[in-house]
From TrEMBL, chains A, B:
Protein name: Arginine biosynthesis bifunctional protein ArgJ
Organism ancestry: Bacteria, Pseudomonadati, Pseudomonadota, Alphaproteobacteria, Rhodospirillales
Organism of origin: Ferrovibrio terrae
Site (Involved in the stabilization of negative charge on the oxyanion by the formation of the oxyanion hole): residue numbering on this chain: 122-123
Subunit structure: Heterotetramer of two alpha and two beta chains.
Coiled-coil region(s): none
Length: 411, 411
């Protein structure tokens, strides 16, 4: 795979993520696909760590997704193993076997049960994962475990990503300071329907597994589920949230507990930050696009409309070409099959209203809209004037870079 | 708008369309947008001509679509006026006024009623159509009416099309020879949900309007509804079928009449031919792609899966790059949310099976699949192994040409 230029939307600097008590990291080079870079991550969790997870809704889920779904009900986690290069998807019984060999190998090295080892893989579909190469790295990984090496972990899971994606937040539960760290990858095949490519969040908060799951689901709905690069939902989408319980807070029994308000907000902030970084590193992305739809019949309807705009090749290429061709936004609303009032609909580009009474405003400034489309941070707002539903979606433009990357990914 | 290279999939030669008794043609240059080419078509129909029509399901339909919907119930047609350059969509009351002015002008010139004049427009959304420029051409158009100038008509409705699209067939009803001619345009914003960009079919058959409508709907389901270029459904999709009744056949009262069997087949053939020409002239297209899905829960389910494959940017770029990355086909089936059996699904590329038992076949020949993807005529078959539903969809690859064309359409 050829190296691609770093996204112009890459962060100017990366946050330094503090250690999370109860989580230790190591990375290695498996020799499966990549050369000259680590492609394997092990996270070791302290006993008592709880897990929550959300996975792709694809009917063709990968073997690691099926594994995680199987072990998640226990809510217990002792390790996470992630490899980049081969996704272990559509690999039949060999795929299930590779998963078992990996989990057994990690469990043996760390002295835990196989069903406490979470797995995720990203890369080419349909190739058999040589799990023995992962297991062979376990002694080295275990010996190299460090309290805090989030950057190495974020780098090791990259595929066509052009920058590592990290986010962190602190908040309080019952007066105790809690840390939430996350990292993720993703740049193509990104249209998560309930999770995203691969995202991992670790906190030292003490929370029951069912509460963790409810919190993850709610925050996911405001973060990764607001993201699309190309409308292509992956077979491997996985977001996992681990809570080591070392912060010393009380383990509240309800996700809606008022004492978790700050935590809910911080978790959503970390996950939103990561989701926007994925949009900013969408394959070939030159511009980050934020689409807000209001006035829809429901929030769900607003999301369908926002995604229809965000996934439209014609809207995305217009943004790429800085052609403020707002008629294509009209088209995308129209094709969504969701209720919208054509004659009262209001489009705003860069905060300035373009339409009124079913047509262009007399004072529409095409030059200003074009200038906004030339910026790195494109904002589109659409009020469809039939209700109170609202949704936000992040995406990127569709450029020659996307074609370059994807017409030649496997080679 | 810059000229773009002619699609490599353009026909080697164009069919010569015979005259259809009762239909006469003229084209002109309106001066609205284009220079040096005609952009306006008038078809004059003999009294007694019946019409059928299907239109976009977009909630943002253009003014000409609303006009046609309004006048269609009478089933009577005396004229069709089509312009290219401005779509007259999202133009509020000014758009409705432009439609009225155009229909009145044509009716006056031809001596018929305004509500017997069908209208269609294609081009930029959101711009007001200067109808007076169309009306100004009416005397010249009327004076220039000829029995047979299908090629000029097909050329006059082109926008980003790189070749004119024509098809013809003859068949018999009750022993009387009937001609069916059609022409159409479309290369981007093509994902018709019940019709296509603009397609016009004219026959000399004698058929009641309601029978014509039923025949059109059935044939459309096997032709234009099997087509997608970019998944972007137009606000202007219109397919109109006119029957002048000059062939001298008996006007059978039921679309399902056995004596119309040959006509049904010929109509579907003409419309399928046109639909495939649109796929072959998809913006930036280098390859025509035919996707057959079988074994689905229903025909409707098969179509959703076939469209999911056909609209996947990752599948389309893989074909563009001749990378037989069949894992992306798996992904596209998986994201469709339709029933499919992962472990029994069979993908064929160029007629050769790639998968078995939920993984790649041991004898899969990647080089042969790659070679097939290098051809101009790419065939993908997927059996999803859950039922008997089947569907075919035509599309094209996603290339740099699509970006070139659409990042700079308005300028």
């Amino acid at each position: 795979m050829a190296a691609h230029p770093v996204s112009p939307l890459a962060p100017k600097s990366y946050p330094t993520l503090p250690a999370v008590a109860g989580a230790r990291f190591a990375t290695a080079l498996s020799g499966i696909r990549y050369k000259g870079r680590d492609d394997l991550v092990l996270i070791d969790f302290a006993p008592g760590t709880k897990a929550a997870g959300l996975f792709t809704r694809s009917s063709m889920p990968g073997a690691p997704v099926e594994w995680c779904r199987k072990i998640l009900p226990s809510g217990a986690a002792r390790a996470l193993v992630v490899n980049a290069g081969i996704a272990n998807v559509f690999t039949g019984k060999a795929g299930a076997q590779a998963v078992k060999v990996t989990a057994d190998g990690a469990a043996k090295a760390l002295g835990c049960k196989a069903n406490e080892v979470y797995l995720a893989s990203t890369g080419v579909i349909g190739q058999i994962l040589p799990a023995e190469k992962i297991v062979a790295q376990m002694p080295k990984l275990k010996a190299g475990l460090k309290d805090s090496d989030w950057m190495s972990a974020a780098k090791a899971i990259m595929t066509t990503d052009t920058f590592p994606k990290l986010a962190t937040a602190k908040c309080k539960i019952d007066g105790k300071v809690v840390t939430i760290n996350g990292f993720c990858k993703g740049s193509g095949m990104i249209a998560p329907d309930m999770a995203t490519m691969l995202a991992f969040i670790v906190t030292d908060a003490k929370l029951p597994a069912d509460v963790l799951q409810a919190l993850l689901k709610a925050s996911n709905n405001q973060s990764f589920n607001c993201l699309t690069v190309d409308g292509d939902t992956s077979t491997s989408d996985t977001v996992l949230l681990f809570a080591t319980g070392k912060a010393g807070n009380t383990a509240h029994a309800k996700a809606s507990d008022k004492r978790l308000a700050e935590f809910r907000k911080a978790l959503t902030a970390v996950m939103s930050d990561l989701a926007q970084q994925i949009a900013a590193d969408g394959e070939g992305a030159q511009k980050l696009v934020t689409i807000d739809v209001t006035g829809a019949r429901s929030d769900a309807s607003a999301r369908v409309i926002a995604r229809s705009i965000a996934n439209s090749p014609l809207v995305k290429t217009a943004i790429a070409g800085a052609d403020a061709n707002w008629g294509r936004i009209i088209m995308a609303v129209g094709k969504s099959a969701e209720p919208a009032n054509r004659d009262k609909l209001v489009i705003k580009i860069g905060g300035k209203a373009v339409t009124k009474n079913g047509m262009v405003r007399p004072d529409h400034d095409d030059a200003a809209a074009t200038k906004h489309f030339q910026s790195r941070d494109v904002r589109i707002e659409v009020d469809v004037a039939v209700g109170k539903g609202a949704a936000r979606v992040w995406t990127c433009d569709l450029t020659h870079g996307y074609i370059d990357i994807n017409a030649d990914y496997r080679s």
